[in-house]
Amino acid sequence: MPSRTVLVGSASGLHARPAALFVAEAAKQPVRVTIRTGDTTPVPARSMLAVLSLGAKKGTEVILEADGDGAQDAVDTLADLLERDLDAADA
Fold this sequence. Notes:
With 91 residues, the protein is α+β, with helices and mostly antiparallel strands. The chain has a single domain, classed as Histidine-containing Protein, Chain: A (2-Layer Sandwich), CATH 3.30.1340. The chain contains 3 helices and 4 strands. The protein has a 4-stranded antiparallel β-sheet with strand order 1-4-2-3, covered by helices on one side. Helix 1 (16-28) packs antiparallel against helix 3. It is globular.
C-alpha cells in the first residue's frame, strides 16, 4: 500500500479553500485515498468534513495512503498538492 508523508504548505492549513481543492482532487483519483495525522484513524480524502476534522495547520505532518491500480500516482498527486500554498492566488 503506497503511502507518503507530507507537510501541509497552505498558510491557513487544510481549511476552507485549500481543503476544498484537496477534496476535489481526491475525488478525481481512481482509487480510495485516506489521510491522517500522526497515529489518528485515517479518514477518506474525498470527504470535506473528514478532512476539516483533522485540524491540520500549516506545517502539520499528514500521511496519505491508497491501495489499488494507480495508488502511487494518486498519493503523489495529492501529496504534491498539499505541499503547495493553496491559499496563494495562483494555486
